[in-house]
Amino acid sequence: MKTAGRADAISLHEISWPAMNPSTILAVDVGGTFTDAVLIADGHVFSGKTPTTPDDQSLGVITAARQALGAADVRPNDVEAFVHGMTVTTNALLEGRFARTALLATKGFTDIEELGRQNRPDLYKLCKNRPAPIVPDNLRLPVAERCGPDGVIEPLDEDSVRAALKRCREAKVESIAVCLLFSFRHPAHELRIAEIAHEVMPTVHVSLSHEAVGTFREYERCATTIADAALSPLLAGYLARLRERAATEGLPAPDVMLSNGGSAAAELAARNAAATVLSGPAGGAVGTARAAARAGAPRALGFDMGGTSTDVSLVHDGLVSVSASREIAGRPVALPSIDILTVGAGGGSIAWRDDGGALRVGPRSAGARPGPACYGLGGAEPTVTDANLLLGRLGADSALAGGLRLNTAAAERAVGALADDLGLDIQATAEGIVRIANLEMLRATNAATVARGVDPRDHVLVAFGGAGPMHAVAIAEALGIGKVICPHACGVLSARGMAAAGRRRDRSRSVVRNLQNLDDDTISQIVDELREAAAADLADPPEARVEATFELRYVGQAHELAVRLDPAEAAAASIERAFHDAHQRSYGFSERTAPVELVTVRVSVEIGGERGDGAETAAPRSPGAGDEGATLPPATRTAWFGGKPYDTSVVRLPRTGDAFPGPAVIELPEATVVVPPGWTASITPHADVSLDRRAGAAGNSA
Length: 702
Hints:
The chain is of the alpha+beta class. Among the domains are: 6-92 and 236-276, 2-Layer Sandwich (Nucleotidyltransferase, domain 5), CATH 3.30.420; 97-232, no CATH class; 503-607, Dna Ligase, domain 1 (2-Layer Sandwich), CATH 3.30.1490; 635-693, no CATH class.
C-alpha cells in the first residue's frame, strides 16, 4: 500500500469492498472520444455510450452509467460493484501535467532521473531529446545515508532528512518521491523518511520506491517512483470527485482498473497512480481473452480501434501477455502491465496533406469535441469516420451510439476540400484515407507479432472498439489471418472486460542469483513472502488466485525473459526448463547447458472476477436499440471495396444462427461490422459475429 499522510490515512478494514461475485456490476471506460458503460444484471448485458468530457471525465462517467441503468431498468442502489477505467494519468503523462514534486535521494544520486540511460529515443534523430525531468533540479534533495547489497553502509542522518523536508515545505510541494540506493532490499531508511515526512508535512503524498516498484535498475525505479508521486495527487482529486458524484447517484464507491488487468479500490489506486496509466486499454485486453475463449481459440490478437487511437494486445493459451515494464510518453514505468502497443490512428484521426504532397492520417484526432465533420458538431477537418461514411460503410440513416446521426454533406465538404488539395476525386481520397489508416494500424499489429517472432496466422483477430470491426478484415488479410471475431459487446468491450476483471495486487523482488545456487525451499519462501504481501491488500480471502512470474536470463545477458508458473510448480528445475523453452520460442535457440540467472520474482494475487468463457444469457442492449429478436426489413446501399462499388446488404439486429455473405454491413448497437466481398459473417450461439474468409477469395477489403 502507498504511504499517505495521517490526515487522509485509511485502513484496509475501512474500505467498503464489493461483493466477491456480484450479480449486478457496472463498469465504465473513458476513451479519448467516447465514454462507455456496461451493466451486468443477472447475466444480461446493457450498455451506454456518450461523448467523453475531457475537462472532467467523471461527468461523462455518470452520464454513461445513467444510460446503462436506464436500459436495464435498474436502480443505482441495486448496483453491487462499480469498476472504472480512465485516462486521467495517461493524459497527464502525455500532456506533462504533474503535481509539484520533490525527490529525496541518496546523497550524490539526486540527478538519476535526468541522467537516465545512454540510449537515444530515436537512433537517427540526433537532436531529439527525452522528456524534461518531472522534478526540477532545485527540488532534488540529498539525504545522507547509504546502503549496499548486503546492508547499511552509512546510517540515516535524520537531520539531513528534516533539512530536505524544510525545503519541501518552503517550496510548497504537493508530493514527495523517495528513492534510495538498494532500498528494494533494505527499505528501513525509506520507511523512516516517510515517518518523518508525515510529522513535518502531514498532508503531503509520499511515494517510496521499494513500495512503488520494489525491483533493481536504479533509473527505472527512480523514474517510476517520481511519476507515481507526481500523478497520485491528481488522480486522488479526480477519484474524490467521482466518488462524490457516484454517492449522489446512489452508486457504490468505484474500483479502478489497473494496468495489470486487475482492479483496486479507489483509495488504493489513488496512492499508486503509476499503476493506472493503462487503465482503459487493460479492460479491452481482458475482454479479448474472454472472447477468444468463447470461440475456442487459444491464441488471439486484440484489435481495439476507438476514436483516437488503436490498441493491440496478445493472448496466448488463454492468458493476456503482460510485460514487466514499459515506456509512456518517453518515461519508463517499471510496473507489471498488460502488453499493449498503441498507434495514433482511430475513427477520429484527421487526414492531411504533408509538405511533400502525400496523404497522411493522424496522429492528430478530432476527439470528442468537435469530432469528425459528419458528427455535425462543428468539425471541419476530414477524418477516417468521414471517409467510411462516404464509402458506404457507415450510413446516414443509421442511429449510432449516443444518439448520433451522421451528416453526409458535412463529410463531403471536409473530404472534398482535401481531395482538391491532393488533385484526386472524393471517392479516391476517401479510400486513400482508409488505406493509410489501415497501414498505420498494421504497423502496431506487426510490432506486436512478426517483430517479436510471433506468427499471427495461427491467431484469431478479436476486433472491437467503435471502429475496430469496420477495419478488422483489412488488417486480418494483411496478416494472413482467416478468422475475425467481433464480440457481441464489441463497441463497449473494454468496459465489458473491466466488469469481468477481479481485484488484483502484484508484488515483486529482485533476486539476481544463479538459479543453480537456489534451492527449492528458498524459491518457495520468496514466493510465499510476496504472496502474503500482495494478499494483505486484499484481505487474503481463501478463494484468491495466485500466479508467479519468474524473470530469467542466461548469465551475461542484459535483459530477462519472463515465464509464468503455478506457484505449486515453482521448483528450480521446472523454472529452468520453462525458461529454456521460452527462449527457444522467442529467439529460435536455447543453451540448455548454460547457467541461468533468476533476476526477479513477481507474484500476483487476484480475487473475484468472472471465470470461464463469460457467456451471457442475452446480447447487449443500449438505449434505443430496439426489442430483442425484432426483425427489421432488409436494406441495401452502395459501398466501395477495392475501388469498386457494390450493392451491399445492411443488417440490423442479427439473430443467433444468421449468416451473411459479403459484401454486407452489420449494424450493432455500439459498432458497425463491415463484411467485405470474399468473407462471410455468422452469428455464434454467444451472439458474437464470426467473420471467415471464403476459400479462394481475393483480398479486396481496403
